[in-house]
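Predicting structure from sequence has reshaped protein science. With that in mind, we have picked out one protein's residues alongside their backbone shape tokens:
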Amino acid sequence: MFEHTLFCAIQPAERDLYVRAVRRWLKPGGHYLAVNYLIPDRDGPPFGTTRAEVWQRFSPYFELVGEWVPRSYPNRAGLELMLWWKKRPKAGRVSGAASS
């Protein structure tokens, strides 16, 4: 699955629903590649997000395969981050974390 700056368009209160949908759409071992638009908090869309927030929401269910800064539009240079995730084999969170 590929998404390009979709996460920042989702209201922060609804982002866990999006993560849940990505989990549902992918089989264990499936890949999720995302260009995240990292901007400060603001009334959106786009809504503010950070690498830390994306990590907090996805890492319990996905293993990070790769991370890099993609080639961007000039007005987004340094604000986009490409994250390549692989869905963990087990449904649910890694050990030690609460399940949803």
